[in-house]
Amino acid sequence: MESEHVKESIALIEAESRKETIRFITCGSVDDGKSTLIGRLLFESKNIFDDQLTSLESDSRHYGTQGERIDLALLVDGLQAEREQGITIDVAYRFFATDRRRYIVADTPGHEQYTRNMATGASTADLAVILVDARKGVLVQTRRHSRIAAMMGIRQIVLAVNKMDLVGFDEQVFTDIEAEFRKFAEGFAFHAIQAIPLSGLEGDNVLFNSNHTPWYSGPSLMEHLERVDVREAAGRSAFRMPLQWINRPNLDFRGYCGRIAEGVIRPGDTLRILPSGVQTRVKSIIRGFGEVDHACEGQSVTLTLMDEVDASRGDVVAAADNPPQSADQFEARLLWMAEHAMTPGRHYLMKHACREVTVTITKIKYREDVNTGAHLAADTLGLNEIGTVNLSTSAPIVFEPYGVNRLLGGFILIDKLSFETVGAGMINFALRRAENIHWQALEVNKAARSAIKHQKPRCIWFTGLSGSGKSAIANILEKQLYTEGRHTCLLDGDNVRHGLNRDLGFTEADRVENIRRIAEVAKLMVDAGLIVLVSFISPFQSDRAMARSLFDEGEFVEVFVDTPLAECEKRDVKGLYAKARRGELKNFTGIDSPYETPLKPEIHLSGTMASPEEEAGLIVSLLSV
Amino acid sequence: MASFSLEDESIEIIREAVATARNPVMLYSIGKDSSVMLHLARKAFYPATPPFPLMHVDTGWKFRSMYTHRDRMAAESGMKLLVYKNPEGEAAGINPFVHGSNYHTDVMKTQALKQALDFYDFDVIFGGARRDEEKSRAKERIFSFRSPGHRWEPKAQRPELWSLYNTSIHVGETIRVFPISNWTELDIWQYIRDENISIVPLYLAAERPVVQRGGQWIMVDDERFPFEAGEEPAMKRVRFRTLGCWPLSAAIESDAETLEAVIAETLHATCSERQGRLIDSDVPGSMEKKKQEGYF
């Protein structure tokens, strides 16, 4: 009897530890019912204890907003001030489990004033449940929270159209809100948006599908949470670990401690310590009280190294053949979280990975309109505003763009006097020195050189998948421009690799360098007054942004040749897709390496709707060159 | 394994706090959460001994087997153990049976803790609180800032993004760090089982002398129990879900003599673990109030 009981317990324990953990947030505007919805989830999934229910009943009489009924929001609004005012001030973390998964849910506040607390919850979430009151539709705060969720890298969205009971479960109301939201979210890199009509108060479509919405055939909220796939598509995996602590109990032992930010490591692997660049090899990996033969992303470890190297907290150890960059000037997206506005020129502390440096915002490029995302000119960034800025650090830091690695791309800003956390930032890319060094003014300058050619110099940058027809269009465009008497030059990816860039391979670092050189050459040619046509897959947003940042306003024209992958693969002019599919070609864009679609190209070509001649003609007319 | 990613997160938190602290300390309350936290700290710095002391704020009313366990664990870890008792409280003979749970807790725990932190001048203090324990704890940051006087301002917490903890403070300010914030009661038990962590035997069921007070079973742990006329302890099979001062920790009737059985009970529990804590619910919002005043 006893042993049966124990066996059953062990089975339960083991089932429990195999469960996957999902972190999600609820967000949206004030009074959209976030806390009530979580309360309902906890309540209905039997994750509330009896004694908590008893105190909930007495709390509901004290503070409840639901008359005689129990007020489920009070399960989550744990602060006295929240209960008194019936609002959520700070993020609450709640835990619940089903037979399949474990959930950590962060209930975030809806008030604009507490946006920083919403960002706190969003920064570690896999999924966001964005609530909308069916009676009110998409509000400013809905848009703000969606924008922050997207900015933080949340890719899975549930649009919970709540309080459907108050609009008589009207299908039209639901479809209108869904359509409006989808249109608004078009520019965001969300992978999936699941819209669900529900009532947190009454429980419709929370755990089970409701009889009140026969017109809705999708999953209930819980069904969706149970089956949604939040794993990130496997991207690059190169070893990176910021050093957190150097462990020196005695003269014979020196351990390098940290949590692995990316990749896998094994004893014997060659590492580079950055920013110094010193190379060494891994002697052993300690995890807990013993040695292991490998360790991977997310694990906290202690490394011992073959050589006595100089490395300290804040340095990054990385795969020697594929190290990250270091730089001291960046473009970043910034959420400002303090009452006093951010002013360029002021010094702040920046905490990034395990390093603290002094930083100055050198320029606000623009502020984003919270509703439309439009770029607005700005001298300062106020509380809860999002902007794109240039910043300069007092010492180089080892980084990755936030889109490539969140742990090496995210940072916080700390006020130097009050020590408050005032900003949260995400690095887009490093600024090249060229943009920041003042060149000696020359008498024969770009304006003079272009004037003599009677043209406006430009860099026309073609991006798209291999086989999309970039080069074909660029070739025809150059011919057309030539016949009109324009001075041009065409830089083709393949050709440049035979000359200027023949020393570069296809590692991540080499690909970045490849693009950097092309962009630099294009810039020199634009300075010479030429119209430069660059035809280059350039799959990464950050690289294209880096190229763009080299040019003056209006000089850089991004042309996105948007031929679908299936069509490119069908064409397969160079037979590369077939090779990549056979696994003979690694890191091939579109197959096992991502192509990041341009968000706002100046010119967007379908690649299939018209002939290359027509497409080239279209560019000529759009540019009016 | 779910508990392993929690372990990695906790170790990262402990190392980060120590790397940025001037004078850190770990509050050690001898309970299961403290046991897990101590184990994590030892892993974080292995093969070194964790570079900070343990501190036990002693009320003088802990179960006898807790004191035994405390001294054994301190010796085993090789860490320095600081024991602090509020000297005025001790001189006044504060007694939960006589002075009530509120006053006892305030003088012997909250005031004592503040005195100890000031006395030793600690700036970073590890605590074993978990967010699933209580609704005001669910709101607290992992690195929780305290103004001079050890006050918590729940309405003005620092934003805490990713795993980037703002550890900058002025003189007189302190940070309480909660490495096991994201663990649940079940995670704690699973980890204790997986890692074979030694715990106070009171967590497992055994025949113990108990008396019923206010609908709860109170164990008679020493001769200070104030029996009423004719009252006698009954022997019952009981265990504890949480441990504190013995007059303030209610036992539950249970046959769970093994960790597996305890975990099975936890999986099927219908009451929260804090139900056995007599100090949480004496006034509305009482945990938040105690926390604001400096209680852990």
Overall description:
The complex is a heterodimer of chains A (625) and B (296). By secondary structure, chain A is of the alpha/beta class. Chain A folds into 4 domains: 2-227, P-loop containing nucleotide triphosphate hydrolases (Rossmann fold); 240-319, Beta Barrel (Elongation Factor Tu (Ef-tu), domain 3); 325-431, Translation factors (Elongation Factor Tu (Ef-tu), domain 3), CATH 2.40.30; 446-623, P-loop containing nucleotide triphosphate hydrolases (Rossmann fold). Helices cover 29% and strands 29% of the residues of chain A. The termini of chain A are far apart. Residues 434-442 of chain A have low confidence and may be disordered. Chain B has 296 residues and is α/β, with parallel strands linked by helices. A 6-stranded mixed beta sheet of chain B has the order 3-2-1-4-6-5. The chains are: A alpha/beta (625), B alpha/beta (296). The interface between A and B is large, with 76 and 68 residues.
CATH architectural category of the largest domain in chain B: 3-Layer(aba) Sandwich
Strand content of chain B: 15-25%
Structural category of chain B: alpha/beta
What percentage of residues of chain B falls in helices of 4 or more residues? 25-40%
Low-confidence stretches of chain B: none
The CATH topology name of the largest domain in chain B reads: Rossmann fold
Strand order, biggest sheet of chain B? 3-2-1-4-6-5
Q: Could you name the CATH homologous superfamily of the largest domain in chain B?
A: HUPs
What number of domains of chain A? Answer: 4
